[in-house]
Specification:
The structure is a single chain. The chain is of the alpha/beta class and 312 residues long. The chain has a domain at 14-183 and 212-238 and 285-300: NAD(P)-binding Rossmann-like Domain (Rossmann fold, 3-Layer(aba) Sandwich), CATH 3.40.50.720. Helix content is 37%, strand content 19%. The chain has helices at 23-34, 90-113, 149-166, 188-195, 214-226, 244-255, 266-273, 277-281, 289-293, 303-311, and strands at residues 14-18, 39-43, 47-49, 52-58, 63-64, 73-77, 120-126, 138-139, 170-176, 179-180, 201-202, 212-213, 232-236, 263-264, 285-286. Strands 1, 2, 3, 4, 5, 6, 7, 9 and 13 form a nine-stranded mixed β-sheet that branches. Strand 1 (14-18), helix 1 (23-34) and strand 2 form a beta-alpha-beta unit. Helix 2 (90-113) packs parallel to helix 3, helix 4 (188-195) packs across helix 6 and helix 6 (244-255) crosses helix 10. The chain is globular.
């Protein structure tokens, strides 16, 4: 059995993050450090980066530094290949799936095999859980999953997280909408083009676009860390619903760009992006009511305020 090596003496658990060097992981690490948490990462090369201890792991080879998960820790599982960085070939889809699902299963095998019991397991997920169709439904955490690739990936991702729950470990899944941030995020390309006076609409423009500001997302993760009553799935999405046309018009207005809105037809998007285009061409509304009922108050509930913070 692995011994306890993380007694901090201040009552706070150490937060160990997979995917800590990624887009969300970087922001969350900085936020946690600013609040006095001890933060460590799991990465392919161990060492020390500033105040962050790096434990080595290679999940595809079944390797992890022995002391990584020992002690009074909360695991935050953010690892996952970037959805938008490459065309969704069969090989890429396998990587997207395995980097999320198989890594979670590997973490569970380590925790189970070493008889460890972290305080909590908090896993990323996505609003893609509900599928990429465009409907008038407003999806809640009780809504069934969709049946496309991204929905299946999210469903299996959460099922892997559920293994921890089956062992009595508090488990939270954060179903995250596309994130607004000054640097990085799935919506950064749309915002970047607006700075150069070009605001392009995709498809019909009537598809809904769930979104969340990176500050709200990090604060939701911190609430999940600190609030012991939280468990299960929570939608991390702004309460302000907008469609694609409305989103792009707001981007143009905040950026001070001319409202020049050429439209890229569906067929062009599908030729350019393949299966990944469905994420852009379709979308439905997602409700944040459960996280609001849990006591979370959004700092950026409105799109114009969020974009003003990002762009200006």
């Amino acid at each position: 059995m692995i011994s306890d090596t993380s007694d901090r003496g201040d009552g706070k658990p150490e937060i160990i993050i997979t995917g800590g060097r990624g887009f969300i992981g970087g922001y969350l690490t900085s936020t946690l450090l600013s609040k006095g948490y001890s933060v460590s990462h799991l990465s392919r090369k161990g060492g020390l980066r500033g105040n962050v201890k790096i434990y080595e792991w290679m999940p595809e080879k079944g390797k992890i530094e022995k002391s990584a998960l020992a002690g009074n820790k909360i695991i935050v599982h953010l690892a996952g290949a970037n959805l938008g960085s490459a065309r969704w070939t069969k090989k890429r889809k396998r990587l997207i799936f395995s980097s999320r699902v198989d890594t979670a299963k590997f973490l569970y095998s380590v925790v189970s095999g070493e008889c460890l019991k972290p305080e909590a397991f908090i896993s990323a997920s996505g609003t893609g859980y509900y599928g990429s169709g465009t409907t008038e439904a407003i999806y809640t955490e009780e809504s069934p999953p969709g049946n496309d690739f991204l929905a299946e990936t999210c469903r299996e991702w959460e099922a892997a997280a559920g293994l921890f729950a089956s062992k009595g470990i508090r488990t939270v899944m954060i179903r995250t909408a596309p994130v607004l941030a000054k640097k990085g995020g799935g919506l950064s390309g749309l915002i970047r083009s607006a700075r150069f006076g070009i605001v392009i609409r995709a498809g019909s423009g009537r598809q809904y676009m769930p979104w969340i500001h990176i500050t709200d997302l990090c604060n939701i993760y911190i609430k999940a860390i600190e609030e012991e009553s939280m468990s299960g799935a929570y939608n991390a999405v702004s309460p302000h619903h907008t469609d694609h046309d409305g989103f792009m018009r707001t981007v143009a207005a905040v950026a001070g760009s001319p409202v020049f809105l050429p439209r890229l037809p569906d067929i062009i998007m599908r030729v350019l992006l393949g299966e990944m285009s469905s994420v852009i061409l379709n979308g439905s509304r997602v409700s944040p009511d459960r996280i609001i009922r849990a006591g979370y108050s959004f700092l950026f509930p409105n799109l114009d305020e969020a974009l003003s913070d990002i762009i200006r």
